[in-house]
């Protein structure tokens, strides 16, 4: 079927109205009328081919919330009218060790298929994302959403920003009795602060800007450290169980590894354009500290996160935009001029 969308025809072209084809639902598919789609920095990187490998036309969007409008004959978990979400993946091999453990993001068979720019048998050979009226997805990659209707726009960024911070917080057992740092108070970091606090950890936000101190406290941080202040940093030396670093720009990691306890972990979730400077390995060796990484999250843990957030009333802080404002939003994102996530009102796509 033909649906309206927004996407780019080339790296140097603006995001503009397109029409795309969606497959008819197969036996295990769910058709979703998209209500809202978050705007992730990955969308910008992909549209402008800053990471390379972009397939055009490119229709981004992997923070999708909508309503089921049709289901395949063998779908039992969803019904027409259900409120559902789709995150960063729409398929994986379903048979490797990672998939068997519910960690499809680490699929070692075919690799996971991204919600956009991923290989597919559907024309034109790559997936189209959530900057569109509708999407058809395997039921295995559709998520249930229990938040009330007036929060659904703010739920959309949970499908990427939420799970990207939830997965490492859960993996490293953030909770009561743990001191957890969140570096960067942006789209990812503000969710990290909210989730770490809600899990019961003593939550410390790191920012380079004094102007974000009160914002971080309002989000749930117990303490805030301005990372450019050497005295504030030194006061916390050797005290963190986990520091979740959401910053996607190249920077010195040693200042943060020095804040870890013995056996503490610095977990990176942002991929910089240029490599971080090589860390001082002595700071790792002498305290058995670790620098680790984490990639989004599996379907089971994404559902766990959504259910937790619905129970606790947690959503993202958003600014709603019309589809025609996407390029303007990208430019503002590059200037860090968003608090904290843009979300598209998809009813404006066909306008």
Topology:
Elements (H helix, E strand, L loop, with lengths): L1 E6 L8 E6 L7 E11 L1 H7 L16 E8 L11 E4 L2 E3 L5 H4 L12 E2 L19 E5 L4 E2 L7 H4 L5 H11 L7 E5 L3 H12 L3 E6 L5 H7 L3 E4 L3 H5 L5 E6 L8 H4 L2 E9 L12 H5 L4 E4 L5 H14 L5 E4 L4 H9 L6 E5 L6
Parallel strand pairs: 10-11, 10-13, 11-12, 13-14, 14-15, 16-17
Antiparallel strand pairs: 1-2, 3-4, 3-8, 3-17, 4-5, 5-9, 6-7
DSSP strand count: 17
**Helical residue percent band:** 10-25%
Q: What is the straight-line distance between the termini?
A: 19 Å
Residue stretches low in confidence (pLDDT < 50, at least 5 long) are none
What's the CATH H-level homologous superfamily of the largest domain? Medium-chain alcohol dehydrogenases, catalytic domain
| Largest sheet, strands/sense/barrel | 7 strands, mixed
Strand proportion, as a percent range, falls in: 25-35%
Name of the level-1 CATH class of the largest domain: Alpha Beta
> Which structural class best describes the helix and strand composition?
alpha/beta
Query: How many domains in all?
Result: 2
Instruction: Tell me the Rg in angstroms.
Output: 20 Å
Average pLDDT, to the nearest integer?
96
Tell me what the CATH architecture of the largest domain is.
Answer: Alpha-Beta Complex
Sum up the overall morphology in one term.
globular
The DSSP helix count reads 11
- Per CATH, what is the topology of the largest domain? Quinone Oxidoreductase, Chain A, domain 1
Order of SSEs, N→C?
Answer: EEEHEEEHEEEHHEHEHEHEHEHEHEHE
Oligomer: single chain
């Amino acid at each position: 079927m033909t649906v309206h969308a927004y996407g780019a025809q080339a790296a140097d072209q603006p995001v503009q109205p397109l029409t795309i084809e969606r497959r008819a639902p197969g036996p295990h598919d769910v058709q979703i009328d998209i209500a809202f789609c978050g705007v992730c920095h990955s969308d910008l990187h992909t549209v402008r081919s800053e990471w390379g490998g972009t397939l055009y036309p490119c229709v981004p969007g992997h923070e999708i919330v909508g309503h089921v409008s049709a289901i395949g004959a063998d779908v039992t978990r969803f019904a027409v009218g259900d409120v559902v979400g789709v995150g960063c993946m729409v398929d994986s091999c379903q048979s490797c060790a990672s998939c068997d453990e519910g960690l499809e993001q680490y699929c070692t068979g075919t690799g996971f298929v991204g919600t956009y720019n991923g290989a597919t048998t559907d024309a034109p050979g790559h997936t189209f994302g959530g900057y569109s009226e509708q999407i058809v997805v395997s039921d295995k990659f559709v998520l249930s959403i229990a938040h009330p209707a007036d929060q659904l726009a703010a739920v959309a960024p949970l499908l990427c920003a939420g799970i990207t911070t939830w997965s490492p917080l859960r993996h490293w057992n953030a909770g009561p009795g743990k001191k957890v740092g969140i570096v960067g108070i942006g789209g990812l970091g503000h969710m990290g602060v909210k989730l770490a606090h809600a899990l019961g950890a003593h939550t410390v936000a790191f920012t380079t800007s004094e102007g974000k101190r009160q914002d971080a406290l309002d989000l749930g941080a117990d303490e805030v450290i301005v990372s450019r202040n050497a005295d504030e940093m030194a006061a916390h030396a050797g005290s963190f169980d986990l520091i979740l670093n959401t910053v996607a720009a190249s920077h010195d990691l040693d200042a943060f590894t020095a804040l870890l306890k013995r056996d503490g972990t610095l977990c990176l979730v942002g991929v910089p354009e240029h490599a971080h400077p090589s860390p001082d390995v002595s700071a790792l060796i002498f305290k058995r500290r670790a620098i680790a990484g984490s990639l989004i999250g599996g379907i089971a843990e994404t559902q766990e996160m959504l259910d937790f957030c619905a129970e606790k009333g947690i959503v993202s802080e958003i600014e709603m935009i019309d589809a025609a404002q996407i390029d303007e939003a990208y430019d503002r994102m590059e200037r860090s001029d968003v608090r904290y996530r843009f979300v598209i009102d998809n009813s404006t796509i066909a306008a």
